[in-house]
Amino acid sequence: MTKLSGTERSVIDAVSRERLMADTEAISRWVRMSGSEEERKAFDYVENALHEMGVQTQRYLGRTYVSLPEEAKLEVKGERVHAIAHSMSASTPEGGLELPLVYLGSGTEEDYAAEDTPGKILLLDGMAMPGKVQRAERSGAAACVFANQDEHVHEMIVSGVWGSPTPENRDQLPQIPVTSIGAAEANKLRRILEEDPEATARLVTRVDTRWTEIPTLIAQVDGTVEPDKFVMFSGHIDSWHYGAMDNGSANATMLETLRALLPHRNEFRRSLRMAFWSGHSHGRYAGSTWYADNFWEDLHDNCVLHLNVDSTGGRNATVLTEAHAMAETRGCAADVIRAHTGVEFTGTRFGRAGDQSFLGHGIPSLFMSLSEQPPSEGDSAGGFAELIGGQGGKSGGLGWWWHTTEDTPDKIDPELLVRDTQIYAAIAYRFLSSRVVPLDVRAAAEELLGHLREWQRRAGERFDLATVVARAEEVADLADRLQDRLDSGAETMETQRARRINELLKRAESAMVRLNYTQSDPFDHDPALSQPPVPLFAPVDRLLDAETGSDVENEILTLLVRRRNRVLHELAEARRALRDGIDVLADGRS
After folding, report:
1. Separation of first and last alpha carbons in the chain
2. Is the pLDDT confidence value at 385 over 70?
3. With contact defined as beta carbons under 8 Å apart, do 88 and 173 qualify?
4. I need a surface site. Which of 87, 129, 365, 393 has the fewest CB within 10 A?
C-alpha cells in the first residue's frame, strides 16, 4: 500500500467534522439561483470565511447568459399534473399550448419512426437532456414532457451550448418548452394515453432567460518556488433549491481543505488558486466559462491542474472507484485514495459535464464528484451517468435527492464528508508541494495512442491515419523514457532543473489534453454534448456512411485532412517538449 507522507497525514488529521458540517449548513440556508440575492449572501459567507483565514480575495462580475425556470402548468383531460420547467427551455406563448400528447418511450430512432410527432407534445421516459431535446426539435415536436423514474423531479438544464452563446452557436439553444414530471404523474399520463390515444395536453411554462451579471470569487495562496504556476481548486456555489450536497458540502470541502493546508503554506512550491463559480446550474457552466475566456493566457501559461469538487459527503456515497480523472492525473489520485482508504481507484473518463471549461487550455483535470452511490435503479443513477458521459462499473450516481427539493443537510453523512475532504486535501498538497508536478505523461501518451489506433482501425482504407499513429508511437516512447527517469529521481532534482522539467511537462500535457478531449480551437468551447475520445476524428463515422465518390465523401475527406494536420501538429509539440525533457535530465541543462 502506498504511504502518505508525514505532512500529508498532518493535513488529513487537521480536517474537522464540526467545521465541515457548520459550513455546509450555513451555505445551504439559501436557495442559490445564479445571480440572485440569496446566492450573493452565500458568496459573502464564503468570502468572509476566506478573510478570517487571512486569505485575500477578488470578486468579479461577469455578464453571462442565465436561465431561471419560474412556472410550469400541465393539464391532460382536465387533470392537473405536477410538472417543472427547465433552465434554457423556451417559455410557451402567454396562453400556453394545447396540443395532442404522444408517448414516445425512451425516444429511440425506432420510436420516432413509429409516431407522427410534428406539432405535438412528446412524453419521453427519463431525464431531460440536451441531446434528447435536440432530437425532439428535429422531429418537429412542439414541446417535451420528460417522465422521471424517481418520485422527486430532477431539475435540469437543457441547452447544448457550453457557457454563454455566441453568434455562431446561439441557434443551438432550445427552441421549445421542456418540462419534467415524477414517477407517479408519469404513470398517470401513460394510463390516460392507453385509454385515449387522442388525448390532448395543455402546457404553460415561464422561464426567465437573459443576460445578467454573476459573481466569480477567486482567492490565492502563493507558492514559494514557482509562484506564477498554480493549482486551481474549483467548485460552484449556485444551487438547485437548498443544494446542501450540490454544492454546499463541496464548498465546505474547499474551505476546510484550505484550513488544513494553510499551516503548511511555506511548503507550497506553486500557488493554490481557489475559484468559486456561479452559473453552473442555470447557465451551463457560464461562470467557469467566463473565467476561462477572460483569463485565458494566465490559465494557459500557468495552471498545472484543475481540481474540481462537486457533491461531497452524500449519505451512502460509499463508491470511491469511479470518480472522473484523466490518465495523467489518475495515478496520483489512486495513490492517495489507496493509502487513505484501501480502495483501488480506477477512475472514469471525463465527459461533457461539470465545470470542465479549461480543456481547450490544455489543463489536466481531476475529479468532479468524488464519491457516489452504489448501483441502483432510477434516474439518479442511469440519468446521472448519461449526463456525465457514461456509467462507471460500480457507480449509482449522487442519490435520489440530487437536483431536487430534497437536497437538504440531512442527506450529508459527516464521516463520509470528512473522508472526501481528506482525500482532496492530501491530493492538493501533493500537487502543490511536489518538486516535479505529479502528472503521468506515460499514461497520457499511451491512452492517446490507443484512441488513435482505434480511429485508424475504424477508418480502414477510407482515410489514412498511418502518419498520425506513427507519430503518436514516437510520443508514447518518449513519454515512457521520460517518465522512467522522473519516477526514479524527481524528488531529488535540483530546483532549477525541476522548474524546467515542469515547464516541459506542461507543454507536452497541453497538446495531449487538447487532442484527447477537444475539437474546437483552444479559444472556444465544444458543445455540452457527448463526444468520443480524440473528437477531431469524429467525422470518420460520417465518412463510413458516405457513398464512395460522392460530394459528401469529398467534403468529409477535406475536413479530415485538415484535422489530421492539426493532430500531427499537436503531437509534434508534445514530441518536442518530451525530447527536451529527456535532454534536460541527461545533461543537466536548465
Report:
1. 35
2. no
3. yes
4. 393
**What gap in Å lies between CA 274 and CA 152, rounded to an integer?**
33
Share of the chain above pLDDT 70, in %: 96
Domain ranges of the chain: 6-66+212-433, 67-209, 441-587
| Spatial separation of the C-alpha atoms in residues 360 and 357, rounded to whole Å | 8
Query: H helices within 382-460, ranges in order?
Result: 384-388, 414-433, 441-459
Computed over every residue of the chain, the mean pLDDT equals 95
Please compute Rg for the chain using Cα positions.
24
Closest by alpha carbon to 538, among 512, 520, 551? 520
Residue written as cell 486569505? 55
Would you say 434 and 332 are in contact if contact means Cβ atoms under 8 Å apart?
no
Residue 377: strand, helix, or coil: coil
> What count of other Cβ atoms lies within 10 Å of the Cβ of residue 71?
14
Phi and psi of 5, rounded to 5°? -70, 165
All three cell numbers of 387, joined, read: 449526463
Q: Which CATH number fits domain 67-209: 3.40.50.2300, 3.40.50.300, 3.40.50.150, 3.50.30.30?
A: 3.50.30.30
Assess whether pLDDT exceeds 60 at residue 391: no
Task: Name every residue whose Cβ is closer than 8 Å to that of residue 305 and which is 6 or more positions away in sequence.
Answer: 231, 232, 329, 363, 364, 365, 366, 431, 437, 439
- Using one digit for the tens of pLDDT, what is the confidence trace for 514-546? 999 999 999 999 999 999 999 999 999 999 999
Cα→Cα distances 10→231, 270, 331, 425, Å: 20, 19, 22, 10
Using CA atoms, how far residue 349 sits from 363, 369, 463, 483, in Å, is 15, 13, 27, 22
Report the C-alpha gap between 40 and 35 in whole angstroms: 7
Q: Which residues contact 509 (CB under 8 A, 6 or more apart)?
A: 328, 362, 364, 439, 441, 444
Tell me what percent of the chain is helix, strand and coil, each rounded to the nearest 5.
45, 20, 35
Query: In whole angstroms, how far apart are CA 568 and each of 202, 467, 561, 565, 574?
Result: 55, 8, 11, 5, 10
DSSP 490-515: GGGS-HHHHHHHHHHHHHHHHHHHHH
Q: CA 578: distance to chain centroid?
A: 28
Overall fold of domain 6-66+212-433? Aminopeptidase (3.40.630)
User: Quick one: three-class SS letters along 527-579?
Assistant: CCCCCCCCHHHCHHHHHHHCCCCCHHHHHHHHHHHHHHHHHHHHHHHHHHHHH
Note the pLDDT tens digit of each residue in 473-495: 999 999 999 999 999 888 889 99
Give the tens place of pLDDT for each residue, 159-213. 999 999 999 999 999 999 999 999 999 999 999 999 999 999 999 999 999 999 9
Closest CA to 257 of 341, 320, 313, 303: 313
pTM above 0.85, yes or no: yes
Average pLDDT over residues 311-320: 98
pLDDT at residue 394, as a whole number: 65
Helix (H) or strand (E) holding 470: helix 466-489
Q: Is the pLDDT of residue 389 over 90?
A: no
- State the DSSP code for 244: I
